[in-house]
Amino acid sequence: MAWVFLFIAGVGEMTSMFFLKLSNGFKKLAPSASALVAMSISFYFLSLSLKELPIGTAYGIWTGIGSVGTVLLGILFFNEKADVTRIAFITCIVAGVIGLKMVS
Question: Which of 7, 38, 84, 87 is the most exposed place for a label (fewest CB within 10 A)?
Fold first, then answer.
């Protein structure tokens, strides 16, 4: 279950960043509240995953899911660039996450 908890935590991380962008610096109530709720859920599930997983592995994968997911959300919803260089570096993050999963 630790890996499932970690995946949920990663999705919560990217969800919180999505709403943080929409909050306009915490000036809009609903997106601000949604960002805080998503971050709370993310931290809760991260803490559950840490009961079984090494902290370095869990943190690296959590931030990797959050980073890659947030970049993809930016491309899909906020018209951010999807150039070759950006995709190449996202691939590097994914490779690192897979590597951490394989060694733990």
Answer: 84
Counting DSSP H helices and E strands in the chain, the numbers are: 4, 0
Give residue 92's Cα distance to chain centre: 15
- ∠ Cα 33 48 63 (to 5°): 65
Does residue 79 contact residue 23 with C-beta atoms inside 8 Å?
no
Task: Give the separation between CA 19 and CA 14, rounded to whole angstroms.
Answer: 9
pTM of the model: 0.91
Among all chains, which residue has been given the structure tokens 């947030």? 70
The residue type found at 100 is: L
The answer to whether 63 and 96 have CB atoms below 8 angstroms apart is no
Amino acid at 3: W
Token pair recorded at residue 13: 């991380």
